[in-house]
């Protein structure tokens, strides 16, 4: 072996030994010494630089595979864990690193990392302690630093988050967290992949898969979130006035993020969000206010750089919304709308230079919703409910000048359906809507009626089909053209559950309403089977006058509505025709001793041309039946909507059974009514607040029955008054005109009418002959109310005979009148008269031809017992001084005239009368009167009655026999 070869061998051996020594040294330093130094110095440096406590289980470096392992790292702060992991392995790709003059890593594996994030009440995050103190800025390299990672795997990671700033009990865990990244590099246009899966402690799954580039930074992929319970995240929304009790979110979205270009781009496409079983309530309400079975948002796209967002459709399926208003008028769960206070020193914001955001929603759909409204602000809680609510809209966008089409429909509880098809332009506001409502129940309005009145709504519904126009900038501003009907309305008096008002249907086939200019036009109103009841209670209170409840002072909103002043310019109203078909009205009066009831039925007719213009008069034509048989007719003109009332109305009632009015007759007249019919023709004229009325009443064949003891009775001889008023046909015609001013607060028409009736009957009953003379005409009251007879006579003179003839004719015209003859005699005058008649008869018998009456009377007196003495006394009494004598004491001479009269008186006084002469005279006088009245052939004998004779005093030699009118 030559020397050269040996040297080469030794050189090679030396190289091998050197390499072995270097390899051993390399292995010893990297594989043994350096790991131990790192394991010792890492906790020290962390404590020195970060002021944290750290521990490392072991560190390994594989010198020849260039693998670095760190096991069991744990970093704590005040004995509270911040960061830890079980195993970290990093592999270096030396060739790639040298080739690209950078760092090329092969595989990075991190097992079971744990991060404990804690945010205290002051907003301090504990993880900030892991960041080193800021160092001086170093100039950036002119060339970008190369790095690459072939594979990065984070396995079974866990992140624990505690946030005391947002909520005292907010805590969330992410476990497991798995991240798998492939082919990461700083080389331009080098695409890597990523796959992230995380599960939150509340069961939420997060899945991210896609690609990414680091130079420039960009990423594309799909993010999916599933099983996210909303109630776990409600503490993150402390400003909302609601609490989320339930709700599960499913979401997925495609994203694209690009940076490093002139325009950075963030795109989101094909987004889908679905929330199931959403349940939201307000803290002040124990039950759920919003529940939603499904909320689905489809086809979400978002372009951050272009400031544009688009949603294909939004679906809210099977929702339930409860709106609650308390007694103070506050909606629970709805934020206050009061404007916030803005400082006057606020500076104006700089003009916006970025693009404005634009957005679009293809359609908004609500399906099968249920909405409940509970309103306690009226005093009585009001509950309204809508079921099967559905809403479908067309395109929605930020462009408020574009019209939005929508269709909304639902079912009104307890019955009724409605549908609205509308097109709305928000700016400027313009609404066109077709409305179709069928049979909407009015029962939910009962609490409002209860709050304002004693009216109970038993049933009733409203229907309407029409078109609504709203455009504030145009004329008319608001209009509605359609038809309206109120069906099967039934109102009761809630105090006794008695019927109050009802109808089968009130229909407005055409209804036109508009604002600016204001106008309400209704060509025709059809009212089918209307019914109303008016009742007077035992306390004499009309039911209609007490239906309104006093509104409590606390109900300020209702008080304002009730007491609101009428508008300065009333709404012009025109109603072409109101048709009544088969109407009825019931009237009852329980204030009487005998309860009264009556009814108008079969009411038919029209009211034409109702108009609010002052000089426009409506025509009334109504007719019906009173208590099924009597006839009712109402005709006239009126302007009910004008401020100054004008009325020219006639009402007639015919063939009304008077027996139905027995309760009133018994109460106020003190008699029942056995039979009779009533006809009334009433006419009322009101103009300039002045009333002129004509009240013509005819009572046909009225007969009063048994008397009734009533404290309210007028206590008049009504039977006599009726007999006086009743003509030969059995009719009583009464005409009572009444006038008065409606401006006079003391004027009460009913009171004035009743007073006029009472006064009429009082005048008739208390002055019957005056009334008879007035009613018949051509009679003298004083001539027919008594008959004058000469003393002792029963013969009627010519005047008396004429008067009795007139009375007979008057009685013939009042066939129900009775005449009572009160036979009167004056004992002194009639006795003298009868004796005179007897004396004259006997004197005539004693007289002979050529006899002297004086001699006959002296002989007659002389023949009577004591006659001579009496004759002598009479002779002496008739002696008088001689008027022709001039002597101081003239001689006495006989006054023959005085003497004859004294003889006559003496003979009359001694004349005797038979027993009962005065009674016989009285009867003769009555018979004379009866004969004079009956002799005309107009009056039956059974209508004249003689009253037992009584005594009286003659007046100027005349004995007056009074007559009395009476009724059976």
Would you give an account of this structure?
Helix 6 crosses helix 7 (749-766), helix 6 (718-725) runs parallel beside helix 8 and helix 12 crosses helix 13. The chain is α+β, with helices and mostly antiparallel strands. It is built from 15 helices and 41 strands. The radius of gyration is 61 Å and the shape is rod-shaped. The longest helix has 48 residues, at 3-50. Among the domains are: 50-129 and 145-215, no CATH class; 412-550 and 571-591, no CATH class; 614-766, no CATH class; 768-968, 60s Ribosomal Protein L30, Chain: A. The strands form three sheets. The chain has a 35-stranded mixed beta sheet that branches. Strands 36-41-37-40 form a four-stranded mixed beta sheet.
Set down the secondary structure blueprint:
Layout: H1 3-50, E1 53-55, E2 58-62, E3 67-77, E4 80-92, H2 94-100, E5 103-111, E6 114-119, E7 147-163, E8 170-185, E9 192-200, E10 205-214, E11 217-229, E12 243-258, E13 265-281, E14 290-303, E15 308-325, E16 358-361, E17 364-375, E18 382-393, E19 396-397, E20 404-412, E21 417-425, E22 430-441, H3 446-452, E23 455-470, E24 478-493, E25 498-515, E26 519-528, E27 531-536, H4 556-562, E28 573-589, E29 596-611, E30 618-626, E31 630-638, E32 647-657, H5 662-669, E33 671-687, E34 690-707, H6 718-725, E35 731-741, H7 749-766, H8 768-776, H9 781-784, E36 786-790, H10 798-813, E37 818-825, H11 827-846, H12 853-862, H13 867-877, E38 879-881, E39 892-894, H14 896-909, H15 917-934, E40 944-951, E41 958-966
Parallel strand pairs: 5-7, 6-7, 15-16, 15-17, 26-28, 27-28, 37-40
Antiparallel strand pairs: 1-3, 2-3, 3-4, 4-5, 4-6, 7-8, 8-9, 9-10, 10-11, 11-12, 12-13, 13-14, 14-15, 16-19, 17-18, 18-20, 20-21, 21-22, 22-23, 23-24, 24-25, 25-26, 25-27, 28-29, 29-30, 30-31, 31-32, 32-33, 33-34, 34-35, 36-41, 37-41, 38-39
């Amino acid at each position: 072996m030559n020397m050269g070869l040996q040297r080469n061998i030794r050189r090679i051996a030396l190289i091998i030994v050197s390499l072995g020594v270097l390899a051993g040294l390399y292995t010893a330093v990297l594989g043994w010494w350096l790991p131990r130094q790192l394991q010792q110095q890492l906790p020290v440096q962390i404590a020195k630089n970060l002021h944290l406590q750290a521990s490392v289980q072991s560190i390994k470096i594989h010198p020849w595979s260039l693998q670095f392992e760190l096991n069991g790292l744990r970093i704590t702060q005040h004995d509270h864990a911040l960061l830890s992991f079980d195993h970290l392995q990093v592999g270096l790709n030396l060739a790639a690193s040298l080739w690209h003059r950078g760092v090329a890593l092969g595989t990075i594996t991190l097992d079971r990392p744990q991060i404990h994030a804690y945010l205290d009440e002051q907003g301090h995050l504990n993880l900030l302690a892991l960041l080193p103190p800021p160092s001086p800025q170093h100039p950036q390299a002119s060339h970008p630093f190369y790095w690459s990672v072939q594979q990065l795997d984070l396995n079974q990671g866990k992140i624990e988050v505690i946030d005391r700033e947002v909520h005292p009990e907010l805590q969330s865990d992410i476990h497991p967290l798995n991240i798998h990244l492939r082919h990461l590099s700083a080389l331009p246009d080098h695409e890597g992949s990523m796959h992230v899966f995380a599960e939150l402690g509340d069961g939420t799954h997060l899945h991210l898969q896609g690609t990414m580039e680091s130079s420039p930074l960009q990423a594309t992929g799909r993010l999916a979130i599933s099983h996210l319970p909303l109630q776990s995240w409600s503490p993150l929304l402390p400003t909302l006035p609601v609490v989320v009790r339930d709700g599960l979110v499913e979401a997925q979205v495609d994203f694209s993020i690009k940076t490093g270009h002139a325009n950075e781009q963030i795109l989101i496409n094909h987004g889908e969000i679905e929330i199931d079983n959403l349940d939201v309530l307000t803290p002040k309400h124990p039950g759920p206010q919003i529940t939603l079975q499904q909320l689905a948002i489809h086809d979400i796209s978002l372009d951050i750089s272009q400031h544009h967002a688009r949603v294909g459709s939004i679906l809210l399926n099977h929702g339930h919304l409860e709106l609650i208003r308390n007694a103070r008028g506050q909606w629970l769960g709805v934020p206050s709308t009061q404007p916030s206070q803005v400082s006057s020193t606020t500076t104006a914001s700089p003009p916006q230079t970025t693009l404005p955001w634009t957005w679009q929603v293809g359609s908004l759909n609500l399906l099968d919703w249920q909405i409940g409204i509970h309103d306690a602000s009226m005093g009585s809680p009001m509950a309204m409910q809508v079921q099967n609510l559905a809403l479908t809209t067309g395109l929605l966008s930020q462009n408020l000048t574009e019209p939005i089409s929508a269709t909304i429909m639902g079912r009104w509880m307890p019955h009724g359906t409605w549908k609205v098809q509308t097109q709305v332009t928000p700016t400027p506001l313009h609404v066109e809507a077709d409305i179709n409502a069928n049979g909407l129940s009015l029962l939910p309005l009962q609490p409002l009626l209860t709050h304002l009145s004693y009216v109970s709504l038993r049933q009733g519904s409203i229907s309407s089909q029409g078109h609504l126009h709203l455009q504030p900038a145009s004329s008319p501003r608001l209009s509605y053209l359609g038809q309206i009907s109120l069906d099967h309305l039934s109102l009761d008096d809630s105090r006794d559950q008695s019927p109050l008002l009802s109808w089968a249907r009130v229909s407005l086939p055409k209804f036109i309403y508009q604002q600016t200019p204001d106008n309400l036009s209704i060509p025709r109103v059809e009212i089918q089977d209307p019914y109303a009841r008016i009742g007077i209670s035992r306390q004499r209170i009309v039911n209609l006058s007490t239906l309104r409840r006093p509104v409590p002072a606390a109900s300020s909103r209702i008080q304002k509505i009730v007491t609101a002043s009428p508008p300065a310019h009333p709404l012009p109203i025109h109603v072409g025709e109101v048709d009544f078909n088969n109407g009825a009205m019931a009237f009852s009066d329980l204030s009487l001793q005998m309860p009264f009831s009556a009814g108008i039925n079969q009411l038919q007719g029209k009211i034409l041309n109702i108009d609010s213009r002052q000089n426009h008069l409506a025509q009334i034509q109504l007719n019906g039946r009173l208590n099924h048989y009597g006839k009712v007719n109402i005709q006239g003109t009126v302007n009910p909507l004008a401020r100054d009332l004008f009325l020219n109305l006639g009402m007639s009632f015919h063939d009304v059974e008077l027996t139905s009015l027995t309760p009133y007759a018994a109460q106020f007249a003190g008699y029942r009514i056995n039979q009779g019919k009533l006809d009334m023709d009433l006419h009322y004229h009101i103009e300039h607040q002045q009333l002129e009325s004509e009240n013509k009443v005819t009572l046909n064949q009225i007969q009063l029955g048994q008397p009734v003891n009533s404290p309210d009775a007028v206590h008049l001889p009504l039977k006599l008054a009726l007999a006086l008023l009743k003509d030969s046909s059995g009719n009583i015609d009464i005409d009572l005109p009444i006038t008065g001013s409606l401006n006079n607060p003391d004027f009460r028409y009913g009171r004035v009418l009743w007073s006029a009736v009472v006064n009429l009957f009082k005048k008739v009953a208390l002055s019957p002959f005056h009334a008879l003379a007035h009613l018949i005409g051509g009679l003298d009251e004083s001539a027919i109310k008594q008959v004058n007879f000469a003393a002792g006579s029963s013969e009627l003179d010519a005047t008396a005979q004429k008067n009795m003839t007139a009375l007979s004719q008057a009685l013939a015209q009042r066939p129900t009148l009775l005449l009572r003859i009160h036979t009167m005699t004056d004992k002194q005058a009639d006795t003298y008269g009868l004796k005179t008649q007897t004396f004259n008869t006997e004197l005539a018998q004693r007289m002979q031809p050529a006899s002297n009456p004086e001699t006959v009377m002296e002989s007659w007196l002389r023949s009577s017992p004591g006659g001579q003495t009496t004759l002598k006394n009479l002779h002496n009494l008739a002696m008088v001084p001689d008027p022709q004598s001039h002597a101081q004491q003239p001689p006495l001479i006989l006054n023959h005239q005085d003497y004859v009269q004294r003889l006559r008186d003496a003979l009359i006084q001694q004349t005797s009368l038979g027993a009962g002469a005065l009674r016989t005279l009285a009867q003769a006088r009555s018979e004379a009167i009866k004969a004079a009245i009956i002799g005309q052939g107009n009056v039956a004998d059974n209508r004249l009655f003689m009253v037992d004779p009584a005594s009286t005093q003659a007046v100027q030699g005349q004995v007056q026999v009074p007559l009395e009118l009476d009724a059976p």
